[in-house]
Specification:
Keywords: Aminotransferase, Transferase. The protein is of the alpha+beta class. It folds into four domains: 139 residues, Aspartate Aminotransferase, domain 1, CATH 3.90.1150.10; 200 residues, Aspartate Aminotransferase, domain 2, CATH 3.40.640; 188 residues, Gcn5-related N-acetyltransferase (GNAT) (Aminopeptidase, 3-Layer(aba) Sandwich), CATH 3.40.630; 169 residues, Aminopeptidase (3-Layer(aba) Sandwich), CATH 3.40.630. The chain is 39% helix and 21% strand. The strands form four sheets. Strands 14, 15, 16, 17, 18, 19, 20 and 28 form an eight-stranded mixed beta sheet that branches. A hairpin with a 2-residue loop joins strand 2 and strand 3. The chain is elongated and about 90 Å long.
């Protein structure tokens, strides 16, 4: 019944990147007719360059340039032939040099992305399993994806979580011949490392465990012969480890290299490694430059370069320690991450640094969670201590200004990254004449104010929320325990500018995921009921639908009001520590809200379509049919009208215990068959409350001739603002298809609302196609989400790919 138009993550990424581009933080063009590595020119301005991945500066070494030039002069600009047939004359020497650097068999690839695509499907057999660190590079994850088509199980763990890794190993060891754990040696965003020694201990404990390291950011600046960070710890490559390095970053040339101890694996990949077999090989210039770099790596000069870089890294660390800048990871790598929190703060700071003469990279979604936007600063041998010191001074000066410009503060940034955050209120960042009021119960709020703002929708008018607070309190089941929070923002004249409510409770992480994902998870939940569930702080509640936010968007200060709300919600986040913060049921085409919330660190996701009906211009059912479109009239005559004689309809405001139990069982049938919107079951006390409340009534549909007369029920709420809300539905699936029970319930809801003189029907979420048939207006809805990390989103995405 629930047909959900799912959000395409690419659309969200494009939208976020568009904001970044428009802010001037990305998609820039370097200028000038020469480049020395120390400075880069953008829009006519020379900037000190702190964004390179060439940490040793070898790309500017004259020996590499001459190696490339000589190779071009000797062999041309390319050697357009697959290596499966013949390699150009320089390849054999390069392979020999790279083998000497690593002391193990190697395979050279066009780049690391193509390398992973060639190697991973070749070394992972059908009987194996894969476990991914959720921060492992995209190129590794992309190469793993096709393994799902071969029924290779793929699991994901939180970043560097060895306890979780061991649990996954235990889960897979009975059905997998080999278990491959895939991780980065050095991670490209925060500059932190994989726990190499601990992973080797796990290898000793579990003979099935093999490790696949992507160490492209650890190459050259670390290790014997510049063999990388992983080799600096391991010293010698173990049998059950495959290593990937690159020649395209610090190495100063192009291409990548796979290293393994097992020569059979090397030959297997070299003989047939997918794109490694069919792609054109490295250009002569790349091979010539790589050979020159390899010879430097095999000399003592590499250690002098490593030490020079280490000295600059140490100096940068020393300078940072004299500031309050939020350095997210303390380490000795050349990558540093300065937290900004919200995207707009990061964009603002990047532009401020460009103005003061420095270029740094912006780190943002999807590479990091949206609210973990920050500056990714890299140190290279090109950077001199004078400009390193000046960069830190510029950061210390401009960072507070960027915070002030974007109505935030250092404490909020620290909280976004889980750093030294207390449960106290953050210092006020927003300068405004508006005032925000917070409440813990609807009983504290004037009913007239509430019902004239937020409460004119669904079942969350003042009376409805008073009931929900009582129903969702102190249950034995954690999913039925909710806390409610209310917010009202007023201007200097006490006029309400914003009003909303939030609830805190346990949600299924796949609530809006494709049905196939929920099906897979529900199998596991038969044993582990709370598998892939998280506590959420959610605008509205699990049981409500509609416009949960009243916002006077026509007022110039609506953004200030929203800022005040987000600050107060952050106080709750500190106290409650939810995995997700969800702002929901917004119109998808509200671009102003979309831009505002993207800049505040939220990502947009599609929700099921909502529907309303307010076309009560007709006087009787025959007139109603005339208001429908030609196609809908045909549906009515084929799918609804023919069953009038076979069904009987009763409107009841009270139910016997037997009727209540029957109705609840029909609700459960719908719940179990409606995984497109996968929620926990509503608690039975909610249905018991309906029976005694004057605001609830029941549209009951019976078969005239059957032993099971009750086949459908609509649980309808009569909102104080004259809104009719068919909030919950129940159907007997044995008869629902034969008698089109769902469509009949929709039609009878419209007839009943007309009888009551309702001004509108809030039909709720899902089944937009069916509701459109009866004349409802279907609305595209979206939510905006912040997550403490991207783990759940990414692990659910792997289930979707299954």
């Amino acid at each position: 019944m629930a047909k959900i138009k799912h959000n395409n993550i690419l659309d969200t990424v494009v939208s976020v990147m568009t904001n970044a581009k428009e802010s001037g933080a990305i998609h820039l063009y370097a200028e000038g007719d020469r480049f020395d590595g120390r400075q880069i020119q953008i829009k006519g301005k020379k900037l000190f360059h702190f964004g390179t991945t060439g940490y040793l500066g070898l790309e500017q070494d004259n020996r590499l340039k001459q190696g490339a030039i000589k190779a071009i002069e000797a062999y041309g600009t390319e050697f357009p032939l697959s290596k499966s047939y013949i390699s150009h004359p320089l390849y054999e020497e390069l392979e020999s040099l790279m083998t000497e650097i690593f002391g193990s068999p190697i395979v050279i690839t066009k780049n690391s992305t193509l390398g992973h695509m060639g190697v991973i499907p070749s070394v992972v057999d059908d009987g194996d399993g894969v476990i991914l660190d959720h921060q492992v590079h995209w190129s590794v994850q992309s190469a793993v994806n096709p393994l799902k088509l071969r029924s290779v199980p793929v699991e994901m763990i939180r970043h560097n979580n060895l306890g979780m890794l061991e649990d996954k190993i235990k889960k897979l060891q009975s059905r997998c011949k080999k278990i491959w754990y895939m991780a980065d040696g050095m991670y490209s965003m925060f500059g932190d490392y994989a726990p190499i020694n601990e992973l080797m201990s796990l290898c000793n404990k579990y003979p099935q465990l093999h490790i696949y390291f992507d160490d492209v950011h650890g190459m050259s600046w670390k290790g014997k012969n510049g063999s990388g960070y992983v080799m600096s710890i391991l010293k010698e490559l173990p049998e059950r480890v495959i290593l990937f390095g690159t020649m395209s970053k610090t190495f100063g040339a192009s291409g990548a290299v796979m290293v393994c101890k097992d020569k059979k694996i090397q030959q297997r990949v070299k003989n047939f490694g997918g794109p490694l077999t069919f792609s054109v090989q490295l250009e002569p210039a790349s091979v010539g430059a790589a050979m020159a770099s390899a010879k430097i790596h095999l000399s003592d000069e590499i250690y002098k370069m490593q030490n020079e870089l280490a000295d600059r890294i140490s100096f940068f660390n020393h300078c940072l320690k004299n500031t309050d800048l939020p350095v997210i990871v303390d380490n000795d790598s050349p990558v540093f991450y300065i937290g900004a929190g919200m995207p707009e703060t990061g964009f603002n700071l990047v532009n401020r640094l460009i103005t003061t003469g420095f270029y740094v990279n912006i780190g943002f979604f999807p590479a990091v969670p949206v609210k973990n936007t920050g500056l990714r600063i890299t140190i290279s041998r090109h950077n001199q201590k004078e400009e390193i010191k000046d960069l830190v001074e510029a950061l210390a000066k401009e960072f507070p200004k960027a915070l002030e410009d974007t109505n935030t503060n250092l404490e909020r940034v620290n909280f976004a990254f889980g750093r030294n955050s207390s449960e106290s209120s953050p210092s006020k960042a927003t300068k405004s004449n508006l005032k925000i009021e917070t409440y813990s119960s609807i009983a504290e709020i004037d009913p007239e104010l509430w019902n004239s703002t937020v409460g004119g929708h669904g079942l969350y008018d003042w009376n409805g929320l008073e009931s929900l607070e009582k129903i969702l309190d102190s249950h034995n089941s954690p999913e039925h325990n909710n806390k409610f929070f209310y917010f009202i923002v007023r201007d200097e004249n006490r006029k309400c500018i914003l009003a909303t409510f939030f609830s805190y409770g346990l949600w299924k992480e796949d609530m809006l995921a494709p049905r196939s994902v929920s099906l897979a998870l529900e199998k596991t939940r038969q044993i582990e009921p709370y598998y892939h569930t998280s506590y959420c702080l959610n605008m509205g509640s699990m049981m409500t639908e509609g416009d949960h936010l009243y916002l006077c968007q026509e007022k110039e200060n609506w953004k200030e009001a929203f800022d005040l709300l987000l600050e107060q919600v952050e106080i709750l986040e500190k106290k409650l520590k939810p995995q997700y913060l969800i702002l929901r049921d917004f119109d998808s085409d509200n671009d102003a809200i979309k831009t505002f919330l993207h800049n505040k660190g939220f990502i947009q996701v599609s929700m099921p379509q909502s529907a309303i009906y307010d076309n009560f211009i007709w006087n009787d059912p025959q007139d109603y049919v005339g208001t429908l479109s030609k196609r809908s009239r045909k549906h009515f005559r084929n799918d609804i009208e023919p069953y009038f004689e076979k069904l009987k309809v009763r409107i009841k405001d009270k139910l016997t215990d037997k009727e209540l139990n029957q109705s609840y069982e029909l609700y459960l049938q719908v719940k179990e068959n409606n995984l497109g919107l996968n929620t926990f079951r509503y608690p039975f006390p909610l249905f018991e409350h309906m029976v005694v409340s004057s605001q609830w009534e029941f549209i009951m549909i019976y078969l005239k001739e059957t032993e099971k007369p009750l086949v459908g029920v609509m649980f309808c709420y009569k909102n104080s603002s004259n809104i009719y809300s068919p909030a919950i539905i129940g159907m007997d699936y044995e008869f629902s298809g034969e008698y089109n029970i769902y469509r009949q319930l929709l039609y009878q809801t419209i007839i009943r609302a007309k009888e009551l003189g309702s001004s509108r029907i809030d039909f709720g979420l899902t089944a937009g196609f069916e509701k459109r048939k009866v004349g409802a207006m279907v609305l595209d809805k979206c939510a905006y989400i912040q997550a403490r990390d991207n783990f759940a989103l990414e692990s659910l995405d792997w289930l979707r790919k299954d």
